[in-house]
Design a protein that fits this description.
Layout lengths: L3 H12 L4 H11 L3 H7 L4 H12 L9 E5 L5 H8 L4 E5 L3 H9 L6 E2 L15 E7 L12 H8 E12 H6 L6 H10 L3 E13 L2 E10 L1
Parallel strand pairs: 1-2, 1-4, 2-3, 4-5
Antiparallel strand pairs: 5-7, 6-7
Helix pairs in contact: 4-5
This protein binds S-adenosylmethionine.
The site of S-adenosylmethionine has 21 residues, from α4 and α5.
Length: 217
């Protein structure tokens, strides 16, 4: 009989394909059981980005902070952020059925059903105090590395960007092995400054994550 781990591995394989259309179709099929399946294997990327937000924004400031949650999925990060006193959270997510789960619980203030890339979105520069992105990178390609440029554009100087993914992706993936070099390049260009980079144990199952927090300059 398939275990929770087997089931999750199959789901992750189904969304980790080269074709964006197929990956999105598989998220649509997964939306109904997505949160339960991840809960069963101890998924914690949304907790990692929320922890970083709580470190940067003291409780009394949180009701006034504007956050954009990129690759929002069903809204797991927003649920955690709300528990910690953040109120103004927008969600950006291309897959409508995933996003509808967040809508049912009224988790976001604004819903942007679209992909983030390096191209400017129809959102003014410096709109947000922070961007979060949990689990937004996957084999085959999800959020492109260059979308960091757009995330930085959207955040006010002095704001923060917190991202978390599986550690192995930045070590081995043909796409995401370029992520950290790009992060360093953007830092060398004075676009942002690294506040922290940590291994986040048990991102899910026994797989480690990595969580970064940058300050936009
Ligand atoms: C593994 S899910 C993570 C969802 C949520 N952040 C969480 O922690 O549960 C990855 C999400 O990224 C979305 N995604 C894929 N490519 C994207 C892109 N270019 N821009 C924004 N979101 C994207 C997928 O549709 C999917 O919902």
């Amino acid at each position: 009989m398939a275990t929770n781990e087997d089931r999750l591995q199959n789901k992750v394989a189904s969304i980790s394909c080269k074709s964006v259309e197929e990956s999105q179709r598989n998220y649509e099929k997964w939306a109904e059981t997505y949160e339960k399946d991840l809960h069963n294997v101890g998924y914690s990327a949304h907790l990692a980005v929320c922890t970083r937000m709580c470190e940067k924004f003291p409780p009394e400031t949180r009701p006034h902070v504007r956050i954009l949650d990129v690759g929002a999925g069903t809204g797991l990060a927003a649920k955690e952020l709300r528990k910690q006193g953040f109120k103004h959270i927008d969600g950006l997510e291309p897959q409508g059925t995933m996003l509808d789960k967040a809508r049912e619980l009224d988790l976001y203030e604004n819903y942007f059903q679209t992909f983030i890339t390096e191209k400017p979105l129809d959102i003014p520069a410096n709109t947000y105090d922070a961007v979060t992105g949990s689990g937004i990178y996957a084999e085959g390609g999800h959020v492109p590395c260059e979308a960091l440029i757009e995330m930085i554009r959207l955040v006010k100087p002095g704001g923060y960007i917190a991202l978390c993914t599986r550690h192995v992706l930045v070590q081995n993936s043909e796409i995401y092995k370029f992520l950290e070099p790009l992060m360093d390049k953007l830092e060398a260009e004075g676009k942002w400054k690294k506040e922290s980079r940590e291994i986040w144990p048990r991102f899910y199952m026994d797989k480690d994550g990595i969580v970064w927090c940058y300050k936009v300059l």
